[in-house]
Amino acid sequence: MGKETSSISSGRAELLPVLKRELSKNGCLSKEVMSGVAEQTGLPLNEVYGVSTFYTYLPVSKTGKNVIRVCGSVPCDLKDAQAVIGSIQKELGIAPGQATADGKFSFELASCIGACDQAPAMMINDQLYGNLTPERIVEILKSY
Amino acid sequence: MAEKRIVLSNCGDIDPGNIETYLARGGFKAFQQARDNMKPKAIVDEVKKSGLTGRGGAGFNCGLKWELALNARAKKKYLICNADEGEVGAFKDKYILSHDPFGLIEGMCIAGLAIGAQRAYIYLRAEYHSLYDPLCRAIDQAREKGFLKQMDIHVFEGAGAYICGEESALMDSIEGKRGEARYKPPYPPTRGLWDMPTIINNVETLMNVPHIIANGAAWFSAMGTVRSKGTKVFSVSGDVKKPGVYELEMGSSLKELVADLAGADDIKAVQIGGSTGNILPASLLDTPLSHETYLGSGAVMVFNTARDIIDIVRNNMHFLSEESCGKCTPCREGTEVMMEILGRLRRLEGAQGDINALEDLAETMAVASLCGLGQAAAVPVLDSLKYFRDEYINRIDQSLFLRSYLGGKMSKSKEGIR
Amino acid sequence: MDNVNINIDGRKIKAREGATIMEVAEANEIKIPTLCHIKGQLPTGACRICVVEVAGSRTLVGSCHTPVSGGMVIYTNSPKVVAARRVIVELMLTAHTGDCVNDTNAEDCVLHNLASDYEVGAPRFNVKAPRYYPAEDSNPYVRRDLSKCILCRKCIRACSDIAGKNILSIAYRGFRSKVVMGFDEPLDSEECRDCGVCIEYCPTRALSAPVKV
Q1: CA angle C9, C10, C15 (to 5 degrees)
Q2: B110-119 mean pLDDT
Q3: By CB count within 10 A, which of C74, C80, C180, C186 is most buried?
């Protein structure tokens, strides 16, 4: 993207770790939180926003307390990821891209999460769940 | 032929949380041999002679890459282990990291000696966050043993972007930027991370290094084919009875892997490499797996005779369009246009010009994209057109029939077809 | 010092090793079309319009960023190059939504001129959800019509490297990429004022001077 301007700050190298810390502290990378990151790293807000919005795991909009990510890539799709999506929709009443009214869960479709031998699979926060069945999904969701 | 577990030789037999179990099996002896008895150039030469090639998909000669970095004059040099493993159908590196982190650390330490790196990173994808603490603990144990004096290792976690598995985007990510591809030259061994000489190797590539130093280049190059030496770790998924990780000598046949080992008994096609991998019909099952033929990252997906090839191609293109960094025109716009065409084909809204449009686009993307993602995005499209062209033609015929049949009964709105 | 011998379109040329193909071509009055390149600045390599054919290379290479080396044989207008450029222009036209036909300033648009040069008509491609944005008229210095943006990034580099303000960045990823200010807000008149450098560099009509009423 061309030469970095005088804002070659040492903060640039820290940007991703700082964004992750602030996200886990605040639950959301709102404009306020991001402005704080911009100050901390010495980068303009637009740069911080531009970097954050590139990455799937640095969302700028509010997510649920628990983020469900169902893999939709080929190996999981072959093993009926659609049924997993349907089960979650039935249990929680939300479609991918939505969050429950009480903010407990939000729901997204994910690109391959590397659990193809346990397809269909999903992650809830950092926890992986594979070999999913409608019954297992109900159990898993209830445990949160 | 059975599996040949060299990279995976410790997996399941050591405690990944306890370095003593690794040392008890001769672990870090190769590193000590390299550190105490070999000059950097000798280490590089041994790896060059072995013929070890990149195991992440690109397949470049590892020793040659190291040599460029060794010969580069710079204040700092970096080694990066690419543990971003975002490729569709790939889970071999996760398996290796979970079961034998010490093998990786030893391989990295030897690589560090060879190129003269002072600092190393393991770029771990965010989705593998559960491996972050165990990996750090393994590194701590190696540090306590004094193995990281010349080059310390840090784990850098990704943030959810498949393109960060591409080496230039990976470096931009570590630098705190968007993970966008860079034009080359300059190549990383000359000017990479923060413009310093950098070597980026896949997890599996580095896992081979201690074995090559311990057993010698000749031992390694005795295995495999003319241009693909040693073994390859494959991750097999899809319509197979025993999905999982398998390690085979290079040049082993596809049939051995998917039918004999993974237990597939109803095969229409196999995709080798990942989302941009070649699609081979069942008639080509006897093909050997190597850089010379088909290999990629070693992600192998099997499709049975009930599967819709167009839908599979569409799903992979969806993945690629989601994950494209968006910097260059052919990939950013091309993947999206291909999605529109493949989406319509899937919904029986195909049109006569669709195959031509796919082929024209595929050619442009292959020759004009900035990086490998765009360049290879259309490979599955072209392969499926080559081996399953009838399915496309039938789909278009059905679409045209449906349109003309319903045209008389439908208003301008296309709600009914959707 | 011109110390290597290369060949461009059949012409033997002496060039400085390490100079880019584009620099050498320009010095020898060979014209290669560009969109995202700012002369004198580091190349971006985003638009891919300037790709050329190099003997022995599997892919075409961006002439703005590829250095020449001894013995290089380059074709700037081979059928392979022309075919690629035409599809790239076609792809840009596909994404380039919004009303150009009635815009009296459309002849200023570099993209439309390129389409004319390469005889690219209406694109045959479609996308499911084009990048459509309502025009932004809130800032008195710059009018933004991002439906016409082809994501060449010249405005970003003009703002940071030439105007020295660093107000603009690329956000999101892939097809949904967008040039943004702040937290993806309309151009703030406090930060973006008394300038207009970006307008000079925008090759389309995505950025223009507001029409004074």
Answers
A1: 80
A2: 98
A3: C74
Closest-CA residue in chain B for A127?
B130
Residues contacting residue B393 through CB under 8 Å, at least 6 positions apart: B355
Condensed to tens digits (0 to 9), the pLDDT of residues C116-136 reads: 999 998 899 999 999 999 999
Answering whether pTM is above 0.90, one says: yes
The answer to whether A16 contacts B176, with C-beta atoms less than 8 Å apart, is yes
**Does C102 score more than 60 pLDDT?**
no
Over residues B224-255, the pLDDT tens digits come to 999 999 999 999 999 999 999 999 999 999 99
| Residue A80 backbone zone (phi > 0: left; psi -120 to 50: alpha; other: beta) | left
Residue B412 has pLDDT above 60, yes or no: no
Q: How confident is the model at residue A144 (pLDDT cuts 50, 70, 90)?
A: very high
Chains that touch A (3 or more CB pairs under 8 A): B, C
Residues of C in contact with B364 (CB under 8 A): 83-84, 87-88, 91
Query: C129 near C172, Cβ under 8 Å?
Result: no
Task: Tell me the chain C residues in contact with residue A57 when contact means C-beta distances shorter than 8 Å.
Answer: none
Contact at CB, C128 and B340, closer than 8 angstroms: yes
C183, A47: Cβ pair inside 8 Å? no
Cβ neighbours of A74 in B, within 8 Å: 88-89, 238, 271, 275, 301, 312, 315-316, 319
In order, the DSSP letters of B358-408 are: HHHHHHHHHHH-SSHHHHHTTHHHHHHHHH-HHHHHHHHHHHHHHHHHHHT
